[in-house]
Design a protein that fits this description.
mainly alpha, 276 residues, 2 domains
C-alpha cells in the first residue's frame, strides 16, 4: 500500500525539519514518532469538541497547538497510525476504535487493540508475545531488521516501550509482552467466546441497533436527554416548557436552516386545557 509509506515519509520529514538532519534513511515499516498516550489525547480531544468528528482547526485549538505546525501534524499522524481516527478535507473523524476509546467501560480494551494496530508493534508482539524481550541494544537491532531506519531506532524503541506500558502489555513485567486480560468489555475481541453464553439473534440485533443509534447522537442531544426526569415522577409544567425551549435552541445550533425556513419555535403554556 502507498499510504503507510507516505505517512512514514511525512513523519520523517517533520523530524528532519525539527532536528536539522537532511540525510535520514527511510523506514519501510509504519510506526509512530509519539506514543499511545499522545494518540489517546488527540482522540479524546475530538470527542470533547464534536463527539465523533470535528474540524482540524477546532481540534488544534482544543489541544492548544498551531493547526499548521509540525507538532500538531505529528500528533495527528500518531493517532491515525494507532487506528483511532481518520482525517481529510479539514475534518477529523473518530474510527470505531476511537469511539470505543472514549467509552470508560471499553477504554482499556481499545488501548490494547490500538497498540496492535501499529505494524511495527504488531510484528514485535508476534515475535515476542508471552516471552522475554531482548535487552535494549538487541531490541533496537531487531527493530532495524523489521524496517526502521537505523537513525530512528532509538525513538522507535522508546515510543514502543511507552506505548506498551500505556496499553498494559507489561503487566507481567517490563521485559515481557503479554496482552492484558480484559473482562466484561466489548473490546476484548481476543477472548474466546463461550458457546453457552452466545446471544440470541434478536438480542444481538437489538444491541447493534442501540449501539448504532447511540453513536449518532450529538453530545448536546445526549446532555439534553440527561436533563429528563425519571418516568412516573412529577415534572412541573414550567420546567417542561423550559426544557422544550432548550430543545429548540440546541436544534438551532446543530442543524442548518434553509433561507425560507428561518425562525424560532415558541412554546406556549395553555393553562385552560386539561390532559385527557
Amino acid at each position: 500500500m502507498a499510504e503507510p509509506e507516505a505517512v512514514i515519509i511525512e513523519a520523517e520529514e517533520i523530524e528532519q525539519g525539527q532536528d536539522g538532519d537532511a540525510k535520514r534513511e527511510r523506514s519501510t515499516i509504519e510506526f509512530p514518532y509519539l506514543d499511545l498516550d499522545a494518540a489517546v489525547e488527540v482522540a479524546k480531544g475530538v470527542y470533547k469538541v464534536g463527539g465523533t468528528s470535528c474540524g482540524w482547526d477546532q481540534l488544534a485549538a482544543q489541544l492548544k497547538q498551531a493547526a499548521a505546525g509540525g507538532g500538531f501534524r505529528l500528533r495527528m499522524m500518531t493517532a491515525k497510525t494507532f487506528g483511532l481516527l481518520t482525517y481529510g478535507q479539514g475534518t477529523v473523524t473518530l474510527t470505531e476504535l476511537g469511539q470505543r476509546l472514549n467509552d470508560p467501560q471499553q477504554e482499556k480494551a481499545a488501548k490494547a487493540d490500538a497498540f496492535l494496530k501499529v505494524p511495527l508493534y504488531f510484528k514485535i508482539y508476534e515475535n515476542y508475545k508471552n516471552t522475554t524481550l531482548p535487552p535494549t541494544d538487541a531490541l533496537e537491532s531487531e527493530i532495524v531488521k523489521m524496517g526502521v531506519a537505523p537513525k530512528q531506532k532509538g525513538k522507535a524503541r522508546q515510543a514502543f516501550q511507552r506505548s506498551a506500558q500505556s496499553a498494559d502489555y507489561f503487566w507481567s513485567g517490563s521485559n515481557r509482552l503479554v496482552r492484558p486480560a480484559i473482562k466484561g468489555s466489548a473490546g476484548a475481541a481476543a477472548s474466546p467466546v463461550n458457546p453457552e453464553e452466545k446471544e440470541e439473534p434478536e438480542d444481538k440485533g437489538k444491541k447493534e441497533k442501540d449501539k448504532k443509534r447511540e453513536t449518532r447522537l450529538h453530545p448536546l442531544i445526549e446532555g439534553l436527554l440527561e436533563e429528563l426526569p425519571e418516568p412516573k415522577t412529577e415534572w412541573p409544567i414550567e420546567e417542561r416548557k423550559n426544557w422544550l425551549e432548550m430543545v429548540s435552541g440546541i436544534f438551532n445550533v446543530i442543524y442548518k436552516n434553509s433561507d425560507d425556513s428561518r425562525g424560532s419555535l415558541k412554546v406556549v403554556v395553555d393553562k385552560n386545557s386539561s390532559a385527557k
